[in-house]
Amino acid sequence: xxxxxxxxxxxxxxxxxxxxxxxxxxxxxxxxxxxxxxxxxxxxxxxxxxxxxxxxxxxxxxxxxxxxxxxxxxxxxxxxxxxxxxxxxxxxxxxxxxxxxxxxxxxxxxxxxxxxxxxxxxxxxxxxxxxxxxxxxxxxxxxxxxxxxxxxxxxxxxxxxxxxxxxxxxxxxxxxxxxxxxxxxxxxxxxxxxxxxxxxxxxxxxxxxxxxxxxxxxxxxxxxxxxxxxxxxxxxxxxxxxxxxxxxxxxxxxxxxxxxxxxxxxxxxxxxxxxxxxxxxxxxxx
Length: 286
Description:
This protein is an alpha/beta fold.
């Protein structure tokens, strides 16, 4: 059985850990509120421009722009978005599992990876995969310019190298206690059934159709990637807040258990000393 001193040291250590987890939860809660406000504000515009993009792609046809046409079969690019830090439960591992599943299901094809977030950069550097671009330490001050830079690299690679398709894997923010891993095809732009069922009446374009397509398609891709980055940031802070709350609760329960053990050990030591005193007194009197 551990000594009273050892148990007391363990209690002090767990209390320090509890202070750290509570502080991290408070920091994540403050960052989460700001991230939640940003993603809630960006989603309506992102959804609407995505609908306009798909509708325009359906009416324009695959030959209207290189981003609408499918490249040669055999090369797939996966855009993986993770966090820069850990201590957020299964947030990063869920993205890795989904990405690994996609890679296993396309073993006969060449896989290129674009990695966003320090954790996925560290994870896939240890594995023998073709890493095209890495973006780490951008989530501390995420901005639209990051999405612009990432989109330009992705679209340039897609057009120049005739990639079959581009897939994005990230955590979508649902609520403070729920995040969902999303696997979304970025390129070529998919035409969903609800768009395909529409009456294909063309729009009136001003100044002309090709100018609008050339301007709207890259801009739409930027918005989609920017929204995914904001989703990932909000989901990461929510996951870390939940993980730190669970850690604090577990630390509190461990402190209660160790305190009980400490009291038992201290009582046993006192009882033992009393017995020794009584036995010594009886020996002297006898």
